[in-house]
């Protein structure tokens, strides 16, 4: 997969394309249907598949004070899109020139810069200045540029409309189990293990720490997780937050892998979030914290039946 990043008018693709359009935050079940649809159309018509998207949700451009809005860190978003067999991934900068394009100029851009033959998008896709362009506009005007339009309808799961907004709400409230169902995969983080302050090791519970994006929309607290390392999976518990007992100022992701003694500093691990256990809180003593961690481990052992 070839990745383009930058200002919209500086990106060109010479080969004819089928383009999936959307923010695709979370790459949930519905998003994957759209992207997989574009890949299928490209193969059927001997074209190249492309995804035109952004590194951040569009609303973060309009609300500069927005926080905790990101479902997937950019590396995971890229990884999932790549796994779907896409030829070109285009991350367009969210800047005035692109956001304020009139709908007609947006279509011109798709045709002349990105060589679009077919557009694939969701039923609620909007584009152009003040979101003036919508599905009806696409259907009525795309043919002027010899572009075909394929629209995917909404997807319901457990009588809920699958959407990034709902998934964001689930993650912020700790309902990671429902978020996983809506995503169609277990929510996960991935990163290189860094050296922390060894606070957990002093308590008798060594942790693998990775850096997390400060705007990640994941509720702080303790989770039952599954940690992947070198092709193997290990039951674990993970704390997301600021470790208030030790008054840390940086948001961290600390994972204690059960019955695991390997040195994995500077190694890549993947952490799947299975169940939210509790909010993080400041304990009155180190002993109280140790006792609570032992209870968390026991809950994880029961969850994994080990």
Task: Write structural notes for this entry.
The chain has 306 residues and is α/β, with parallel strands linked by helices. The chain folds into 2 domains: 2-161, HUPs (Rossmann fold, 3-Layer(aba) Sandwich), CATH 3.40.50.620; 186-304, Elongation Factor Tu (Ef-tu), domain 3. 30% of the residues lie in helices and 27% in strands. It has helices at 29-44, 59-62, 74-83, 96-99, 103-112, 135-141, 164-173, 176-183, 199-203, 286-304, and strands at 2-6, 17-21, 48-53, 88-92, 116-122, 148-152, 156-157, 160-161, 188-192, 208-211, 221-229, 232-241, 252-257, 268-278. The strands form 3 sheets. Strands 1-4-3-2-5-6 form a 6-stranded parallel sheet, sandwiched between helices. It has a 6-stranded antiparallel sheet with strand order 9-14-11-12-13-10. A two-stranded antiparallel sheet has the order 7-8. α1 (29-44) links the parallel β2 and β3 (48-53). α7 packs antiparallel against α8. The two termini are 40 Å apart. The mean pLDDT is 91.
């Amino acid at each position: 997969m070839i990745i383009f990043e930058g200002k919209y008018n500086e990106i060109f693709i010479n080969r004819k394309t089928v383009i999936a359009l959307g923010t695709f935050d979370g790459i949930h079940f519905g998003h994957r249907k759209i992207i997989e649809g574009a890949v299928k159309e490209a193969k059927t018509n001997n074209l190249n598949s492309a995804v035109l998207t952004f590194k951040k949700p569009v609303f973060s451009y309009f609300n500069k004070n927005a926080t905790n809005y990101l479902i997937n860190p950019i590396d995971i978003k890229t990884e999932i899109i790549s796994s779907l067999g896409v030829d070109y991934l285009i991350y367009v900068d969210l800047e005035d020139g692109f956001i304020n394009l009139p709908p007609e100029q947006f279509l011109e851009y798709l045709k002349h810069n990105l060589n679009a033959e077919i557009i694939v998008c969701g039923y609620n896709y909007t584009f152009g200045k003040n979101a003036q362009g919508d599905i009806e506009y696409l259907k009525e005007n795309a043919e002027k540029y010899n572009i075909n339009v394929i629209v995917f309808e909404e997807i319901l799961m457990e009588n809920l409309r699958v959407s990034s907004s709902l998934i964001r709400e689930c993650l912020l409230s700790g309902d990671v189990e429902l978020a996983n169902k809506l995503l169609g995969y277990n929510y996960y983080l991935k990163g290189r293990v860094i050296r922390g302050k060894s606070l957990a090791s002093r308590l008798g519970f060594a942790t693998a720490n990775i850096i997390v994006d400060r705007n990640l929309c994941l509720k702080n607290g303790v989770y039952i997780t599954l940690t992947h390392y070198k092709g193997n999976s290990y039951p674990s518990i993970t704390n997301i937050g600021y470790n208030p007992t030790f008054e840390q100022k940086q948001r961290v992701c600390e994972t204690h892998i059960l019955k695991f003694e390997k040195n994995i500093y500077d190694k890549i691990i993947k952490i799947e979030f299975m169940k939210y256990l509790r909010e993080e809180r400041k304990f009155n003593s180190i002993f109280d914290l140790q006792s609570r961690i032992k209870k968390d481990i026991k809950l994880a052992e029961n969850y994994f039946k080990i």
